[in-house]
Structures are given as C-alpha cells and as structure tokens.
Amino acid sequence: MLKRITLAALCLTASCPTLLAETTRGGLYIEEVLVTVNKREESLQDVGASVTALDADMLEAANIEDPFNLAEMTPGVVTRGRENMTIRGIGVDLIGVPPVAFHENGLFIPNNNVGGNYYDLAAIELLRGPSGTVYGRNATAGALNLRWNPPVDAVEFKLDTRAASLSERRLRAAINTPLLPNNWLNARLAMSDHRRDGLVTNLLAEKDRFHGDTKDDQMVRLWLQSQPTETLQLNLRYKYFQRDQYRISSATTLTRNNGSLEEFGAEPLPQDRTLVRALAHRMIFSEQARQLFGERDYRDYQIDVERLDAEVVWALDDLPLLGNVDITLLFGKSADHAFRPLDVDGTEATIVDVLRRERDDALIQEMRFTSQNDSAVNWIFGLFRARQESRLTALNFVKAKIDLADSVLGLPLPTGGNIFDLDVSTPHGEETVTSEAAYVNSTLRLKHWQSDLPDIEIFGGLRSNRDRQELFEVNDVALVLPNRANRTQAASLSGGSTGFEVEFEEPTGEFGAKWFLSDEHMVYAKVARGYKNGFGEVMDDGSLNEVEAEQLNAFEVGSKNRFFEGRLQFNAVAFAYDYSNLQVQQVRDTTTVTENAASASLSGLEVDMTVAATENLYSIISLGYLKGTFDDFCSSDPAFPSLSDPGCPEGEQDLSGNDLQDTPRYKASLLLNYQRPLGEWGSLRAVLKTTWTDDYFLRHYNRDDVDRLASYTNTDIRLSWISPGGAFTVDAFVDSLEDEDQLFFRPVPLGLGVDGVITSLGPNSPRTVGVSLGYQY
C-alpha cells in the first residue's frame, strides 16, 4: 500500500530517525537512518555500498550548505572550489561531462547544476563508488541525491536570517500548508536570497559585482503533493534559481613572479593571490561582442536555472506472481541559461578573456517497477531516457606568442615569435546528447528462503546503456591587426564548421553479497563495472578531438557495525579500481580538453564512526586513505609545452606513476556536537567541525612548484541558543577559522607560447564571523 511509500518519504524529515543520540528505556543509542540510494527504502547499515547520509538535523548542526561543506565531512571526497565534486580522485574540470550523477528528488540532472544552497532539505545521500545500475549515465565516481522536505498535512513556517563578514546577508523562509483536507493537496514553498562580497578583490572593478566569486543568489521552490487514495501519490515540483557572479582566475605565485604576465604586456600583480586586475566584464561593449550577442549591457550577466518535474507513485498489491509492486513514473524538464564573462588571466591585459552565452535544455523520463514484498526475493526494473540539447555562442580575446611563418599551415603554433592578439570565436555551437537505458536489480535473502541457511543476501544488477552525441560548431581564429588597442581589421587564420556524431553501447552493473552476522554486524563484498560515454570536442581552431569511452572495474569490501548497545556506529570499506581509457580533463587556453589515459589504478580505505558518548554529546569521525596513479599515460603540459620525455610523442611527458589529481593520500574530519539543557531557558549547543587534508596535486603533471597543494585544515565553530520548544534559535559562528584565503583549488594552465602561465579558480573562503537568527512554527 502507499502508506509504506509515504512513511519512507516522511522519515527523511527532521521528525523521524536521525543520527542524533536518543535516550529510551533501553539506554542511549544512535537512531537508525533510512536511505533510498538503491531507489528503495532501507537502513543505512544494511546497504552494501559506501554511503554518506545526512538528515535535516545533521545538515543544520554541521552547517552543510554546499558541496564544499559536504566534501569536508566525507572521506575520499574533495571539491574543485564550491561546486564541482571529486570522489575518490574522479571529477570534472571547468566544463565537461561530470562523473558524479547529480539528482534532486531522484531526478537526474545532466549538467550537475543543482542550483541554490542546501536549504530545507530532508536529507542528502552521497553514494561513493561506481553506481551504474539504478542511477543515470556517467556515475563512475558516484551519485548524489538531494531530497527536499516534502509537504505534510499541517501548517509549518520557518524563517532565518544571517549576517557575516564580507557584507554577507542571507534571508530564507519555508512555508508548508494543506490546500485541501485529508492529504488531497499539500504545498511547501521555500525561498532564499543570499548575497556576499567577492572572495577575490578586483582592483579595477567599477562596481561591487565585478569582484571575483561574489554571491548574489536567489532561489524559489514549490512542491505540490496529492494523495487522493492510500495507493496513489502525485507530486509536482518546481524550482527557479538565479545567480549573478563574475569569475576571475588568479595567477599562481609562480606566474606572478616569473615575468610571463609582463611579457604579455600586463602590469605586475601583488603577491596576495586574492588581488587581481580584471577587465573581461567590459568585453560586452566591444564591436565583436555586439556582432555575436547583439546590444547588451552589464544587466544581462546572469545564470538562470528553471526546473519542473512530475512524479506518480502507484502502489499495487497482490499482483499475480509479483505480489506488491510500486510503479513510479518520473518526468522532468529543465532549462539552464548563462551569459557571463570569465577573466582567465586576472590582469588588465587581454591574455585570455572569455564571454559565453550558453543554454541547456533537458528532458528526463524514468519508469520504475519496485517490488515491496516481505519475502526472500525483491527486485527493481526500470527504463530511463535523458535528452540534453546545448547551445553555445562564445567570444575569446587571446594573446599568444606566435611564429607567423607557421600560421599558413593552420592555427599559429606557439613556438616563438612575437606576441599577437587573437579573436577566437564560436558564433554557433549546438550539441545533443541522448541517453537511454534499461536496468534490473535484484536481491535474494537466503535465510528468508530457507531458515536453516546463513543470513546472507546476494544482490546484483545489470544496466544496458546507449548514449548518442550529435555535435555541430562553427569556429574562427582571427589575427587582430595591428593590435587590440588599435584594431583596424582581423585576418582569419583558421576555423570553419565541424560536425560529428557518435554512439556508444555498454553494459554496466554490480554483483555482491552481504552477510548479516547479527542484527548489529554486517560484512559485504561486491564487484562493479562503471562506464562513461565517449564524445567529441571541437577545439578553438575547428579541429575535432575524439574521446573514447571510459571503463572502470571496481572491487569493494566493507563492514557495518553497531557496538555498545548502539552507542557506537563503525563502518569501514576498502576498495580497488582499475581504469581503462580514463578521461582526464584540463583547461587549455579557452577550452577544456579531454584525453584518454591508457590505464590508471586507485585503491583506498575509508572509515566512518558515529559515537553517542553521553546524552548530550555525540561525534562523527571520518578517516580516509587514497592512492591513485597512472599506469600508462603520456600528455603535453600546456603550461610548459617545451618539455618532453623519451618513449612519448614529441612534446609530451611520461606521466606513468604520477598521482591522479585530487587524490590526497590521507584525510580526516571530526564533528563534535554538545547540547546543554538550561531548563526553562532552553538549551545551548556548541558544534566544532574540523577537517585535515593531506597535500595532493591539482594537476596530473605533479610539479611541486605549480601543482602541489600543501596540506591544510579547515575549522568551523558554532554556538547556538535554542529556546524552549525549539521555536527560536540564535547562532554565533566562525567559519574557516584558519583563514587560508590563499588556497585555490582549480588550476587553469595557459598554453600561449610562454612557459609558466598558470592561473587558478575556486578560491577558499577566508575566515568568516557572523550571527544568524531563526524561527520556526
């Protein structure tokens, strides 16, 4: 019956089982957490996979509001700034196909643009490891699912406001109300407005919005839910998100001191990496921009995300041969639009300045049949289809050191000569990616089949994937004469139109077993195969870069346990990955280039512990070990194109044995939450969250002077007063206590004919001090 489905949804709200310690007649213990990572409700401790699951209470206590905060609490996970997530060394660069399958309420998000912070969520579920059976395409690294708080048959209201350093101010509200009685129609509305000064100071900014990595985000969400009968549930969800953000890349310390920027005509930059001199935002007033984009001004710089999805859940009971089956139909439509500048060099010289207009339209459809039987066998069968249409118009102002004698052969070769200005443009680009899949997943509980057998559950799944890409672009590379400041004409050097079609078919899946040693202890082992489709990329000169499909064979063994009458929860997992044709991305000049490494290996160990030490104190501890290396890979470094190694093609280095980027060898995090009752005065809560990350390389070239990110810690402290009954809260906090504002997480090498030009995006937040006030009814 649908009652079981509704309960599963409601039990992801703050009023149901959580990670928080509770006291009952049997003593102190850690409550059970229910998750849906396998697209059916089950206890976190019964899942045969590495899962981080955080409910609403934990998200609030740990101040988890974006992927960066989530990564801090999760072993094997780092971010390249505040948005992109890398799981066990596998991630995406500035643009490209994400290897983490992002979902919202189970709806696949093709471009991973979830939009908005983690507000009014029932839970976050992060599945680490290849998840190519029940999730959408490209889940080789893992899958993330954000679950909103669902509407309920009651009036609820909550409001909070925050003020902090960098002129940060935030206002959020959520309202829940029944529109028709008896669950015929309930509604929940959530809204957020968040603004903050930039993390990077632009010394040439005419307005505050033209500093780097500002925050000016607005979000509104609406969920309508109807349950006309006990066996039928209807959901309609809408989301709109907008952002105004200017992205500025900051030159590395090496580049600020090696004279390369001055060779391009830029003024010297200060040693403080949070200081830049950027003018890319003025590109909109150039003649070239008017020809491509029409008459525009600063007000047109914005990112808009609009998403609508409908879901039908129908519970059928006592079907012949099948028993109880839930049928789920999910239909989603999204439209993402972005028009924004990017200053890649962070100087007043137009070394690489970018202006892009992008639009993504996606249509997602999924139909799923899920058995709900109290028997030995349960199964899921599903059909999935996603179609994403992307359009691009781009203008890039570039400086490069060119030998014009070679330019007649194609794109000017960066082999010496003089500095010239180039206009690199994409007047028209369109891409359509269609993914179709059928999948089945099943479990067999031996003890439920034969009572004298060991309590072992065998599980397995198979997914048939078909991915098709259709690509067409028009590109042009023009030499600006005599120079950009005195432009009189532009001579086309290369370009033209490029069309490409490719299709891939590949099976993925997993097979494993779980042994329930007792109600408190379980061990599991599984093998899994992941796949990420190949594709084509058009380079600036119009040439085509064909990328082969990536395959992953993974082995994982783990154990999930409760000790001391449920006061200690201890989970551990060890894994080993074998990659072939690993897709490795890096930024080259104005585009992202993907290469296939012949092979790579990853292995690691992860430990998660939750401890309910006393009725008022609990802690969460995570430890991670990760080693990832290339077994066979040659590649050219765009920042140092003159380097080459024996055994590799001319101009390429042998990276065999190098660490994969974003693979810190060790990582540890600690969360302490202490709540002190004050009787009729309410209670005080103190939260300490700290993370230590070992040093690691930001690029796969492993240069100590450029690529190594030194080990660092990040600590947040929060003190809260909670009124009797929990209606009012007052928080005082310090985030990023160490004030590591010189850390940048996403390198951008510029291969412009001059060695050593590397800039970075993704700045770390400086120390932030603030207060927040909240009310809920």
Termini gap: 31 Å
Helical amount: under 10%
Cα-atom Rg, whole angstroms?
27 Å
Query: Which regions are unreliable across 5 or more consecutive residues at pLDDT < 50?
Result: 1-29, 407-414
Number of helical regions: 7
Tell me, rounded to a whole number, the average pLDDT: 87
Give the quaternary arrangement of the chains: single chain
Structural class: mainly beta
Number of strands: 45
User: What portion of the residues fall into strands of 2 or more residues?
Assistant: over 45%
Shape: globular
Main sheet makeup? 22 strands, antiparallel, barrel
Structure report:
By secondary structure, the chain is mainly beta. 5% of the residues lie in helices and 58% in strands. The protein is built from seven helices and 45 strands. It has a 22-stranded antiparallel barrel. The chain is globular and about 80 Å long. It starts with a helix and ends with a strand.
